Amino acid sequence: MAHPNSPQHGHEHGHEHGHGHAHGHGHGHGGRRGGGFRRLLAKARHAVTPHSHDSADKTDTALESSSRGMRVLAISFAALTATALVQAVIVMLSGSVALLGDTLHNFADALTAVPLAIAFSLGRRAATRRFTYGYGRAEDLAGVVIVVLIGASAALAGYEAVNRLINPADMQALGLVAAAGVVGFLGNEWVARYRIKVGREIGSAALVADGLHARTDGFTSLAVLLGAGGAALGFPLADPIVGLLISVAICFVLRDAAREIYHRLMDAVDPKLITQAEEILATVPGVERVGAVRLRWVGHALRAEVEIGVRHDASLIEAHGVAVAAEHRLMHELPRLRAATVHADPDGPAGIDHHAVLLAHR
């Protein structure tokens, strides 16, 4: 049985709740991520519409998430740039290639804010007839750029370390080098915690990957202390050896970040989210059976396509009511879900396949 209100079988309610309740009950693509006027109109409509929740005064969740992301990027960019500039001065005074590798990596980490900022800005744009799901996937493209920057910093740091092994040179200002390592660790760890925390809260894989990147930068900064300590004990090759180890550590971050972005590009989701969605649907009155459940990330928001079974003798209005209730329940109980398409099928009578006409196309 096709979902009510559609001559075929798909019917998507544009309830872009995301727990922020910017209800856009329009049924077209253009109204899902409308401009400021549409959001104001939606808020006004919501304010005079009876509802069982107390969040009508909250801002649109998608815009709030992007705003938080932009704020994180601005603050972390300033912190990492300041850290890298301090380290760069000490590199010129000391000639430490381990510290050079750490400095290059910190500059690269600061620069990753640029593609992410562009992605968050694009994500605010309204959906169009060409980009019907909006521009949220720009975050995944930014993630690819971040992976490339991580790889480039690893290659450059490794090259400088190998070059110093081949052409040894004395280090100067060992105390300053050690201090720069501590500064690098503190700056990166603070940025990492901030990015990972907010990234997970708003569901941004790119921001989490960037935070993991910064965390490893912090530990590689501590490794600079080993190079300075070795040089102070009369082993000058300790500095380039540590620089080489830093390059290897960056490669491990590269692997983790690439895997995270690959999963997003391939529409992978945590299987626990599927289980949670199925459990939510099973509790909706009128849902006789839970069929296929599909989730995908579009930027830092989830979209769902689900199938439910309703009584085969239910009226069109009754079946539609169950589908709307299922969608509404999903919106409020599944984290970061922004939109859902609920397809209702008649559950029974036994032995009848209501999709038999489609078998040849599957």
From TrEMBL:
Primary localization: membrane
An individual GO BP term: intracellular zinc ion homeostasis
Keyword Lyase carried by entry: no
Alphabetically ordered keywords of this record: Membrane, Transmembrane, Transmembrane helix, Transport
GO-annotated cellular components: plasma membrane
Membrane topology according to the record: Multi-pass membrane protein
Biased composition (Basic and acidic residues): 9-19
Gene Ontology terms for molecular function: cadmium ion transmembrane transporter activity; ferrous iron transmembrane transporter activity; zinc efflux antiporter activity
Leader sequence segment: none
Domain Cation efflux protein cytoplasmic: 271-346
One Pfam match: ZT_dimer
Domain Cation efflux protein transmembrane residue range list: 74-266
Transmembrane region(s): 72-97, 103-120, 141-159, 171-191, 212-235
Gene3D superfamilies per record: Cation efflux protein transmembrane domain (1.20.1510.10), Cation efflux protein, cytoplasmic domain (3.30.70.1350)
Record carries keyword Transport: yes
Compositionally biased residues, Basic residues: 20-36
Subcellular locations according to the entry: Membrane
Region (Disordered): 1-36
Family as reported in the entry's similarity comment: Belongs to the cation diffusion facilitator (CDF) transporter (TC 2.A.4) family.
Full protein name: Cation diffusion facilitator family transporter
Species this chain originates from: Streptosporangium canum
The organism's taxonomic lineage, starting at the top: Bacteria, Bacillati, Actinomycetota, Actinomycetes, Streptosporangiales
